[in-house]
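Issue: ligand-bound run for manganese (II) ion - logging full I/O for the record.

Environment: standard queue, default settings, no custom constraints.

Inputs:
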Amino acid sequence: MNLSCYDSNFFEIEDKAVVLFCYKAEKPSGDILQKIDILTDGAVSQMFESGEFDGSTNSSMMLHNVPEIAAGRLILAGLGDEKEADLDAIRRASGIVGKMILTHGLKSVSFYYDGSDTNPVVSAIVEGAILGSYRFLKYKTDDDKDKNDITAMSVVVPNKTKLKQAEVGMVRGEIIASAVTHCRDLVDTPGNDLYPESYADHAKQLAKELKFKCKVLGPAEIKKEKMMALEAVAVGSDHTARFVVLEYNGKEKGKPVVLVGKGVTFDAGGISLKPGLGMEEMKGDMTGSAVVLNVICAAARLKAKINLVGLMPLVENMPSGRATRPGDIIGSRAGYTIEVINTDAEGRLILADALDYADKFDPQAVIDIATLTGAAQFILGYAGAPFVGTSQKLNDNIRAASERSAERVWELPLWKDFSDLMKSSIADIKNTGGRPAGTLTASAFLKKFTKDWPWAHIDIAYCDVEKSGLPYVPKGASAFGVRLLVDLITHWKKV
Ligand code: BES
Ligand code: MN
Ligand code: ZN
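Outputs:
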């Protein structure tokens, strides 16, 4: 897509369609909308009065051949109440417009914006429009798949003084949106094409393009590192494990923030086989690692002033004659023995070794993100992701990033009760703690493998897939966490 910014009078913008954002009101407000109302003999007033379009959030209206407007179509995009309208209202409105441009096959659109905060607003416009019009077409061969793709998008501001800010916002918006769409592509890619080896190759390729470090540990190196918990998950599959280490240095010195992402390319459950219904969704059990990979890509492209390490433990969890059995006792890199009660609780096993490996980097903080527990569904439903953490400052940073990015997370307690439920009578720890508080017993398991650095764990099970479609999150992989973590690392406050 060709993105551009320029300054122009609204009426002189030439394009297939021009977009004007409108707040909810009883009658048209603002110089431009009022002028359009006069030019259309009160057509806009009538729409506002009848409620057909009144600037409500998530509403839009397309008008053709409006007199004195150079563009072929005028799209009015509602932002809702002016008092409540925030950046996310812009993202949602732009998402709806992006989808509209796509379904109408218009291919090209210009957004006009003359309000304040040009830089973040333009970023939100670009994010919303790109993300709202996202489709996953890699496997479609039977229709003209690129026919309607949006090829050009412009953001137009009223004067040269706002242009610089708009350009900065546009670049940032494009980088964030690409990280999200690329993450969605990976998550939607099925397990027959995305498995540890192909996934690690892909990470290597990206690192080469964007010039950050990428090291891939194969089976022999994983054995040398004594990552026995990771190996215990991988043994059931014909695809061997990989452990990907990414390093981005945006600062001369300073301890890195380590991001760890669960990378189960397909989770059949192992010998504790999952029920067949819905099992196909488990191709998305690598979302955490795809988030980490793309956050590092975004950091590199944004030249973020922070040092980052990304760890991606990659395995496939399959049943076979070689698979780990329920009841088996396995080792771990940290030295603890683990009684495997349920082979479907595999995410925590691979994360345990990755968290222990994180200590190598003398981190200032470690954050892991994982589609870890089905029980997360019963905490916040689909509305947000529960998280836990050992440092109030880090937790506050995460909450602040959540508010800015509108990717919602909510903190839960790390009480000792949950660790008690993970005690094994014959090993150092067991991998499941029963049905109650499943998300928190899993967290307590992970905590055992952390050191005294600030640590947080975000459980994105169920947030990783959007079931019905939102303005800028179409049905399918949501890539939840990319915008949250990009925001976090670009607004990093010492913890
Ligand atoms: N990948 C699943 C968790 C999951 C379930 C993510 C549904 C997204 C949607 C994880 O590996 C798992 O199977 N967890 C088990 C743990 C249990 C055996 C303690 C679960 O949640 O049922
Ligand atoms: Mn599982
Ligand atoms: Zn899993």
